[in-house]
Amino acid sequence: MISGRKALLVAPILLLSIGAAGAVAQDDEEELFPILSSGIGSALYGERRAPIEYSTTVAGPLVALDPVARLLGGVLEPGPLGSSARLTLGPSTFVFGTESSVVSEGERLFYLRQPALRGAVGLRVPVELLEESYGRLEGFEFRWRDAESVLEISRRAPRELAVSLESVNLQGVTTLVFRFSSRPHYEVERSGDTVAVRFTGDRLRFDAGRSDPRGALVREVTVESDAIRIRLAPNVVAKDYLLADPFRLVFDVYQGSSAAPVSPAPRVPRRTEGLTTIVIDPGHGGEDTGATGPDGSLEKNLTLILARTLKRQLQTRLPVKVVLTRDSDVEMPLDTRAALANQHKADLFISLHLNSSVAAGAKGAETYFLSLEASDERAARSAETENRPASSSRAEGDPLWDLELILWDLAQNHHLAESQRIAALIQEELNLTLELRNRGVKQAPFRVLMGAAMPAVLVELGFLTNREEEKRLNDPEYRVRLADTLVRAVSRYRASLVGDDEVAAAGAGR
């Protein structure tokens, strides 16, 4: 089950994004997505049929969620004033509303092509929300037959899912991480000393992991075609939770007692209200020069200049303390950079970099937050390049590195939603203000972000290997504009944390 603490992490973010522009009138919403037709159609599931409200807009069909929930199950709870709702399917809860296309599922955020609409009874939602919830979790398929105004619902054919297991033993806790090729539909059952995870509609294929989970706490783990069974030692507790992108089911196994277990992941300091301390990391340094421009500019020098400018602008325009991980041309291990942020109890960690490409015409900015798996091939190559310096305490391929990576991913997951939010704000400001080519918000396994016990992002501010962008990055006036853009993004993020529009206005400097 997703813990209440984790669910609450994302819900305020969603509500802030919904409320950022105030109470948006339904008429304004319909102007953005003009309604082409509305009426009463049918939801058809096997022999069962139910009337269903629908609307079609330029962005696609929307259907009433209430009759779908009655047909397929799940708990649907309307929010205040009928402008939002919560849909709970097993361990997952989806939160969505009429004034935002953002949907939260635990700590995962995703975007719809259009927001929900108010109907006569409840909300009408895009069919893609049904696919992301009932489809992905419970194996249903949906097809909207426009000519007949029918929502056709069917069961997806059984899938074969690959599942692998990694285990970590640390500080009296064994952490079992089951990774799946696709998100399964499952239930967790407990009986005596056995925890069983039962799967419906899917068949499992076990790919053995690199570590043996058996020990003082875990006696045996077996993977069958339709279930995973964990046999525990006497008086041992197994607490489960989810991680997304890729989907993982995690069990923390520890000796049962009245005391709370020691967390295997690095300790996450309690966040103070708002944002008071920011750590800026100028990428590379010393012998690690980073990218080199056609005219000889070095990434390590430009990121340091940009970091100093950003620090000055942030401290001038916001009541924050700013710390640089390096303030001179020195080489610094990747692990040390995030460790400094942790030591300063930072509320935000931003690592500044400049991109490189064998294609001379490559240009634009992109912003990353942490994931064990890259969002695309280009993101994977970027992470590989940035992780290459041999100044880390351990190298990839080392079994200890693999264990550390799992632990840090679990720790950073606590801040996944906030990391994604600040990444989106930074990318939006870069796109709008500087008219840079939008290369998007992405995820990748950047080593420099893995130790950060706070929201953390890595920003590629341009392609140093592009002669035009190299020239711009060497222009002091342009660098000030670039720093100003980042300050605006941080100001908007800080305002969302404290709920103060004046903070955003003070930092915007527009």
Features:
510 residues; 7-stranded mixed sheet; globular; 13 helices; alpha+beta; single chain; 6-stranded mixed sheet
3D structure, described in words:
The chain is α+β, with helices and mostly antiparallel strands and about 500 residues long. It is built from 13 helices and 27 strands. The chain has helices spanning about 5-20, 25-30, 65-70, 125-140, 300-315, 335-345, 375-385, 400-410, 415-435, 445-450, 465-475, 475-500, 500-510, and strands at about 35-45, 50-55, 60-65, 75-80, 85-90, 90-95, 100-105, 110, 115-120, 125, 140-145, 150-155, 160-170, 175-180, 185-190, 195-200, 200-205, 220-225, 225-230, 235-245, 250-255, 275-280, 320-325, 350-355, 365-370, 440-445, 455-465. The strands form 5 sheets. It has a 7-stranded mixed β-sheet with strand order 9-10-3-2-1-12-11. It has a 6-stranded mixed β-sheet with strand order 23-22-24-27-25-26, sandwiched between helices. Strand 15 (about 185-190) and strand 16 (about 195-200) form a beta hairpin. The longest helix is centred in the C-terminal third of the chain and has 23 residues, at about 475-500.
